Amino acid sequence: xxxxxxxxxxxxxxxxxxxxxxxxxxxxxxxxxxxxxxxxxxxxxxxxxxxxxxxxxxxxxxxxxxxxxxxxxxxxxxxxxxxxxxxxxxxxxxxxxxxxxxxxxxxxxxxxxxxxxxxxxxxxxxxxxxxxxxxxxxxxxxxxxxxxxxxxxxxxxxxxxxxxxxxxxxxxxxxxxxxxxxxxxxxxxxxxxxxxxxxxxxxxxxxxxxxxxxxxxxxxxxxxxxxxxxxxxxxxxxxxxxxxxxxxxxxxxxxxxxxxxxxxxxxxxxxxxxxxxxxxxxxxxxxxxxxxxxxxxxxxxxxxxxxxxxxxxxxxxxxxxxxxxxxxxxxxxxxxxxxxxxxxxxxxxxxxxxxxxxxxxxxxxxxxxxxxxxxxxxxxxxxxxxxxxxxxxxxxxxxxxxxxxxxxxxxxxxxxxxxxxxxxxxxxxxxxxxxxxxxxxxxxxxxxxxxxxxxxxxxxxxxxxxxxxxxxxxxxxxxxxxxxxxxxxxxxxxxxxxxxxxx
Length: 503
What we know:
Layout (H helix, E strand, L loop, with lengths): L8 H11 L5 H10 L3 H9 L13 H14 L3 H13 L4 H4 L2 H14 L4 H9 L2 H6 L13 H11 L13 H10 L3 E3 L5 E3 L21 E2 L12 E2 L9 H9 L3 E3 L5 E3 H14 L6 H11 L1 H4 L2 H10 L1 H4 L16 H11 L10 E2 L12 E2 H8 L21 H15 L22 H11 L8 H11 L13 H17 L1 H4 L2
Antiparallel strand pairs: 1-2, 3-4, 5-6, 7-8
Helix pairs in contact: 1-2, 1-3, 3-16, 4-18, 7-8, 8-12, 10-11, 13-14, 13-16, 14-16, 18-20, 19-20, 20-23, 21-22, 21-23
């Protein structure tokens, strides 16, 4: 692994493909021209100042649509890829929260923290109204403790259930104790979190009915602290400080690895999840260890440093090669599939509902298709993850129903005809005077970012489709019927192809 490794065009394209929504040859070439090394390129992509964008609207459909529109238009592609990741990691659903404004505020909170200090990020999420509703912090009182947040804070957000060696990271008593820290928390009409001390477990002896009374400690047996008395998170009478003290302790949690070395649990857990998202499914522990140690993430918890280490590592570029045995490609998320396709074909969505023009590709008829409906059919509804665990990734995205939805989207996007920016206008993207089938296939696959992922056999199959198995040795794109039937059809076929579903 070296940030000083020279950046070549294939690496640049792979980096843009994984860290954004599109990877055109022109963008990749510019990245190479501007950055001599992998490290320089990663620095450039990570140098953005997080935007304060917050999707607005009265209904959850409104904010979801506006977020998709923002992803289609934004220059900060890596930012939005990170916001998607954290939206899944800190999964919160409108179905339970029931407040559109809170969901929009959380979306901006994630955006503002997406590449900063992970410890500060978790502390902010602790007091986010949508999260407080979703995981019942607002229902956690000293007389009726609720353990939901205390459990998910460890299980999903910071540690994981078990360490890489298969040992539990926490006990049930740790869940109970952490729940005590969060008793009494609520938020006011402005969305500002506050502690109602009358509802907070102060730990005094009078509260004899509290089964978790006594010292406020966690990790008597877990976490590598070596103290059977546990880690005390009490803040005296400054009860509001206890939730931050809990986070500080969690971020010192360690485990013994295969070499009998103590490693930071949060550092390795978050690094592995980010590698899985950006690089490859099921990354090796050596990859995780290398990027955490190189970036210092196990002590600094600086997400920018960690992401840079991920993006310069040799293993990150192993998946740049075409799909095949031993190549660990990732299945595109539905949102990624939709947004990248719209961006590459330079198509904007239509109206308040952010619809795709002419669901059947007919400018005179055919129903417009809501992007929210399209994404729901593909298995992903923004602001409504299926559970606190978020969405299942990789092959879980693919079923007969969701694949048919992807194919229908590809058909509709290639058939969205008209004269405006909400239509597919091939004359803006291709040389329509070109007649050689091989050149046309290369142009389409190059634009859609898969030319370097195709085998010779794949390319031959596309030429066979374009030429009607050789019946049309040349292609006349000046003929409207040929243009719509063949060029638009070729675009749809590539969008539907297995290689385009992967990255």
